[in-house]
């Protein structure tokens, strides 16, 4: 499919937008009128620049408030249209988007609308231009795509077709199945945008919360499928605007946008194979001693040292932590190892989704590890399921000890606010994870937004957090370890856990009646508690090391959450403690 | 009136919140439960700390999902309540806020709700505690304050009353007049919050968009008036949360909060006297030469030099610009002179509203100028209307020349994003200006939010802008000069104006039919054009000097706006030009 994007979807001047869009590999653009109006480039210069960059100008948009009006407004509208046709000829644009009228002056009269659009199409035809009529979700009388199509059909002019926009269709909760009843050649254009489900005024929702397919809650792929089955063969064109995209770097947004289109097309053909588990988490540390003490207290053993690098391997059951003593600054979570049946295929899939493949610095005899970089800089290594051959890189590796900690339950990564949607789409599309609902919790100095995602059978769980905290962002990342006996783990950790206020346990006792003995134990060991309809959750946090802390969790029954009811207590205690 | 605030309304740990709230002069606090739960301070320590700071603990909140439930849930609720009563006794809190049940398990049965609340009030009475029952706007069955009051009346227990919250009442569009039918002694508590009018889910609206009275669109003063007429004599207590307040500095928020309460009380008694005009705008400049050239081209003359400071006075008609050559960095708009009938009264009024009064550095014989600092650092000088006695401070002042520029039309100030509401409340309450609707316009690298405010007869107009642009904020401030003949002004300014793209004039010609001659003139002189139902607006911009540029405007007829239709064109051109 031809891939296009509206210039309004990336930031900058029109020239900067075209450069970024071409660099990300798009085939064409929609020229958003205000981008041209505020540009010092003439339409001819824009046309030539786009051509030099290999971009077609697939659409000029939007033309507003034209149809279903009185004679004076019609005359003014036709005059305005002739000016725009002239601009389009100078640009070399052949299709004009006409949005359904939102003016209070518009009349509720489909026949009038059809007759006037037919007139517009006749005028357009004289310039070799086509009119694509679109129902805005907040159109005065026409706010449904099938209504727009009925008017187009009634007008019956070869230069008049309809434009479909996934946001306008899905935001109204309309069934997109009706698209298949529209002849493909009468769908002149298909605009794609996703959005989170929000209960708010649809115009504000559209202006501030559109996002790229796969970043929101809409079934954009479903709309594409219907359009293709209807016979549509035009571009898949992204039209996205939100407060973050408006101020993000154009080049980065354009790559994110292209990734969303690739993932969208892929969903129908070759869905990602989700990882089957965590192979390891790698921490960059200035020196391994302090974390070594903590890991020892957690029941881990140092099972090997890397043959050629200052990297230690620590293990307990299938939980593996690498301490890489090459960090110049504080401790951070640098890499995640993921088990997958086909590491080579996984990295090719990631590369297809525009993930930068990391150069392999491999000493002779070392394992051939495939790795890519996530947008937040985290390195993702793909390792073969149930075949930790990479352990052979470590000299004298010995057997991992058994203990109550059995594996990694999840990892939580902090994202810059402006890259949350981008990161969510990346992990979702590259790793084939399924996102859960967005949640929010309070930090003493701001608000944290969080979204968990998990693969089939919860074999791999990840949590993405963004924080707007006191001007900066809470920098914490964490690794959660699954314990089969958190009481035993907690006893061994005494003095190394995050102190939990007595007020928390007073409140817990008010909220839950767990019996005096259990409450006493939770209080004594500083354990947090939660439950849902599936089961119970006990957890604790360690002190923080640079940007990183560990969580120990015990899931009892089928508890599905992450203990976010206690997150505000954790954050307050963490702010109280040492902070890099 | 006693002034209180909920701890959730400022950021930080509970200890930090109490300090900031006391420093701003509040009499009491509502303890928000999560603030206590996450605090390492015991309830006794919180009680003692508040007492040491002179703060009463007026309310403990919230207690949720209690009433109108089955027997098991009732037993659990009473058990939970006993735990909370114990905490309240340790805190020394005497009133508990109970919110209407939002749980799906709640039954729609007022008699059951009343009976169970009566039971709760009996238990509370044994501890000397009162229950204040409040209708949440999103309560399952009780979402209206009069409904909550009917249940309270039915329960008929001296320790049970109602709590009113302006947000919950006004967000539902309910008539607050019914408050007066409630006996004052049964209104146990009054919570105040404002909010911008938004069409969105009321729970999200409440969580993310509450603001202090005077910052939003609600008639909070009306609610207070009804409560006072009903006989309410308890605290006026602010309960505000939004994404910005959560991360702002606690001390600053607490002052902003206190200002909102003072202004609220004042609105009923002694409203502000709005300025009658601009006396001057003062620019801090590194050196006056370049701006002197511009002002000369604009038709200004240097009419005097300050006797003791490196300040030049430039005048044309009643438009006066001071160039103060003490800036270490680039040019900025440092001060605004406002004419008012009673400068001394104006500064006392500003001080009452917590504006810092600036020390007067007055040489012998110099005019006694009263000045305060706005939250954004702008200095506001109050000068006597029609009595520019301060001109005498300038040596050899000569007569101001006449010309087509007659006065300052408006000044526009850039605000940091996190201080927009604070600044709006400050200028509104201190200067008695009336805010207009919020507008937004696109910048190539972000979005600008703007709010104009004006005094009676538009004698003083100000525009506050915030920009979220490429991680930073667009720093521009500007002074708009009113011209009676902008064509003449533009001809003299050639080469010093901001270049406007030809595409803008092509689009203007498509949108408006002003005749070929007028369009040619607008295009030739780089003038922008707008109109509304009252009249027409012609304007132009100068080049930018440091953070500052000038706008020249000509209002024809009764045009009321600020030409924001062209703002995106201006911003794109400004980004193209030299930028500090």
TrEMBL record, chains A, B:
The keyword Isomerase does not apply. It catalyses: 3-dehydroshikimate = 3,4-dihydroxybenzoate + H2O. GO terms for molecular function: 3-dehydroshikimate dehydratase activity; dioxygenase activity; metal ion binding. A divalent metal cation binds at residues 134, 165, 191, 239. It comes from the Bacteria. Pathway: Aromatic compound metabolism; 3,4-dihydroxybenzoate biosynthesis. Mg(2+) binds at residues 410, 478, 551. GO terms for biological process: 3,4-dihydroxybenzoate biosynthetic process. Pfam families: AP_endonuc_2 (PF01261), Glyoxalase (PF00903), Glyoxalase_5 (PF14696). Its cofactor is a divalent metal cation. InterPro entries: DSD (IPR043700), Glyas_Bleomycin-R_OHBP_Dase (IPR029068), Glyas_Fos-R_dOase_dom (IPR004360), IolE/XylAMocC-like (IPR050312), VOC_core (IPR037523), Xyl_isomerase-like_sf (IPR036237), Xyl_isomerase-like_TIM-brl (IPR013022). It is an enzyme of class 4 (lyase). Its EC number is 4.2.1.118. Keywords: Dioxygenase, Lyase, Metal-binding, Oxidoreductase, Pyruvate. Residues 407-555 form the VOC domain. Catalyzes the conversion of 3-dehydroshikimate to protocatechuate (3,4-dihydroxybenzoate), a common intermediate of quinate and shikimate degradation pathways. Belongs to the bacterial two-domain DSD family. This is 3-dehydroshikimate dehydratase. It comes from Nonomuraea muscovyensis.
């Amino acid at each position: 499919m031809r891939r296009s994007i509206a210039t309004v979807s990336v930031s900058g001047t029109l020239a900067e937008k075209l450069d970024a869009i071409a660099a990300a590999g798009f085939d064409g653009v929609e020229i958003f009128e205000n981008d041209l109006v505020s540009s010092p480039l003439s339409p001819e210069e824009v046309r030539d620049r786009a051509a030099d960059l290999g971009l077609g100008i697939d659409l000029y948009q939007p033309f507003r408030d034209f149809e279903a009006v009185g004679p004076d407004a019609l005359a003014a509208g036709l005059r305005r249209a002739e000016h725009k046709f002239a601009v389009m000829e100078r640009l070399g644009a052949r299709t004009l988007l006409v949005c359904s009228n939102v003016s209070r002056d518009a009349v509720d009269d489909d026949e009038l609308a059809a007759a006037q659009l037919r007139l517009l199409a006749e005028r357009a035809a004289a310039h070799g231009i086509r009119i694509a009529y679109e129902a805005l979700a907040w159109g005065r009388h026409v706010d449904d795509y099938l209504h727009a199509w009925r008017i187009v059909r009634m007008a019956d002019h070869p230069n008049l077709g309809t434009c479909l926009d996934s946001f306008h269709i899905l935001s109204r909760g309309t069934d997109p199945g009706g698209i298949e009843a529209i002849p493909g050649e009468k769908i002149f254009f298909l605009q794609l945008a996703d959005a989170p489900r929000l209960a708010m005024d649809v115009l504000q929702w559209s202006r501030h919360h559109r996002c790229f397919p796969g970043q929101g809650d809409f079934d954009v792929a479903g709309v594409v499928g219907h359009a293709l089955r209807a016979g549509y063969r035009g571009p898949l064109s992204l039209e996205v605007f939100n407060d973050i995209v408006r101020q993000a770097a154009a080049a980065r947004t354009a790559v994110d946008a292209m990734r969303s289109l690739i993932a969208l097309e892929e969903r129908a053909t070759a869905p990602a194979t989700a990882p089957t588990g965590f192979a390891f988490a790698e921490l960059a540390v200035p020196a391994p001693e302090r974390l070594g003490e903590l890991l020892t207290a957690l029941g881990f053993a140092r099972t090997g040292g890397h043959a050629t690098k200052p990297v230690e391997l620590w293990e307990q059951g299938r939980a593996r932590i690498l301490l890489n003593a090459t960090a110049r600054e504080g401790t951070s979570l640098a890499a995640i190892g993921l088990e997958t049946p086909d590491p080579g295929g996984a990295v090719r899939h990631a590369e297809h989704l525009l993930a930068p493949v990391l150069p392999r610095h491999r000493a002779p005899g070392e394992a051939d590890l495939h790795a890519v970089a996530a947008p937040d800089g985290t390195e993702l290594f793909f390792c073969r399921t149930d075949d930790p051959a990479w352990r052979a890189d470590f000299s004298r590796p010995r057997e991992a000890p058994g203990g109550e900690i059995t594996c990694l339950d999840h990892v939580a990564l902090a994202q810059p606010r402006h890259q949350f949607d981008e990161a969510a789409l990346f992990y979702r599309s590259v790793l084939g994870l399924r996102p859960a609902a967005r949640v929010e919790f309070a930090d003493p100095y701001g608000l944290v937004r969080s979204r968990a995602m998990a693969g089939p059978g919860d074999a791999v769980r990840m949590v993405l957090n963004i924080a707007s905290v006191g001007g900066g962002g809470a920098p914490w990342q964490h690794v959660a370890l699954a314990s089969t006996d958190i009481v035993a783990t907690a006893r061994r950790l005494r003095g190394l856990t995050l102190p939990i206020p007595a007020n928390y346990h007073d409140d817990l006792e008010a909220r839950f009646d767990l019996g005096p003995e259990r409450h006493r134990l939770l209080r004594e060991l500083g354990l947090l508690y939660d439950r849902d309809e599936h089961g119970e959750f006990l957890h604790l946090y360690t002190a923080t090391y640079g940007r990183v802390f560990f969580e120990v969790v015990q899931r009892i029954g089928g508890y599905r959450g992450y203990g976010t009811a206690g997150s505000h207590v954790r954050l307050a205690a963490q702010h109280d403690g040492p902070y890099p």
